[in-house]
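worker-3 :: picked TetR family transcriptional regulator
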Amino acid sequence: MPTGVAIRDVREQLFDAAERVLLRDGPSALTSRAVTAEAGCAKGVLHRHFDDFDAFLAEFVLDRVDRIAPQAAALCESAGTGTVAGNLADALTAVFESVAVAIVPLVIFRDELRARLREAWPAGVPVLTEAAIMIASYLSAEQALGRVAEDADVGTLAPTLIGAGHLLYADRGTTPPQAGAVHKMVTAVIAGAVREPLP
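worker-3 :: tokens ->
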């Protein structure tokens, strides 16, 4: 690792390496040595920028949570276009084909990581909770346009979609569910809430 590299560059390099290890080998394989080996740098580099490995993991998880913000903005901007089910299926696919599914067992696997995350994230599982907020915001936007029923409980529909999506994607190895399966699940969950587009 050359000297003089900006801290942000080192952090991103380590976070990207952690994501690759997590997705490829699972949470039990995510060690400081595995991350630095994957990043192609000395083990001491990680410890120069983070207090310990759990501090690194907490920052990694929160960094991946922050990446949902652009997806959330794009999803809300899609309100009134396409179909509600299609927009939701695309959004869920983007969330669950990212590192989201792998982060859930990582958080469950490490007690100290959960404790660190509670300092910044008081409730829920990071990434999945943020994704549920994104879905609820989108459904509220569609509600305002009349494409989702005014009395629909978006606060319940959103986590229901996240939970059902997680079940579709969890523990599938390298084969994600087909797009049709995701769309079918979304259509079933929102069937009672969606209205035909207004003319």
